Amino acid sequence: MASNESPDPTVVRSAKIGDASDVARLLDQLGYPCNRDEAADRIVTVLGDPRQHLLIAERDGHACGLISLNMVYSVAHGADLARITALIVGDDCQREGIGRRLLREVEVLSRQAGVSRIEVTSGPQRQGAHAFYRGCGYSEGSLRFVKLLGD
């Protein structure tokens, strides 16, 4: 490391119940609003499922990003695969390498679990996210269809 470079102050760790306010804030920035209590419930769900992970990127004691990962068995592939179900870096921390760091962390977790395929879905309007994923070595895959089941 050059003498004028400082170490990355970002810490990536598993989410805890105490992160609920930050998780709610970040999910809201991503376009999925929830309150602190709802975020706490989501964190509890993830903590109770060994095939799910919710990681927080933290700087100076404040959450600046999150990524969630769900490992599932794919009949089509005959193996487990990992799905990134959310990735957000706070507006004030973007373009600082935090998103790439979070992706690397889930890639490490996936490899440790014996997973060789990671999928991520990104809405068609999120052109910046698409460029980001391509720049991180992800390629376009299948077209996704969604049907909401209402009452």
Automatic annotation (TrEMBL):
The GO terms describing molecular function are: acyltransferase activity
* Keyword entries, A-Z: Acyltransferase, Transferase
Report the EC code(s) recorded for this entry: 2.3.-.-
- Residue ranges annotated for the N-acetyltransferase domain, each copy included: 10-151
> Would the keyword Magnesium turn up in this protein's UniProt record?
no
**One Pfam short name:** Acetyltransf_1
PANTHER family named in the record: AMINOALKYLPHOSPHONATE N-ACETYLTRANSFERASE-RELATED-RELATED (PTHR43877)
Protein's UniProt name: GNAT family N-acetyltransferase
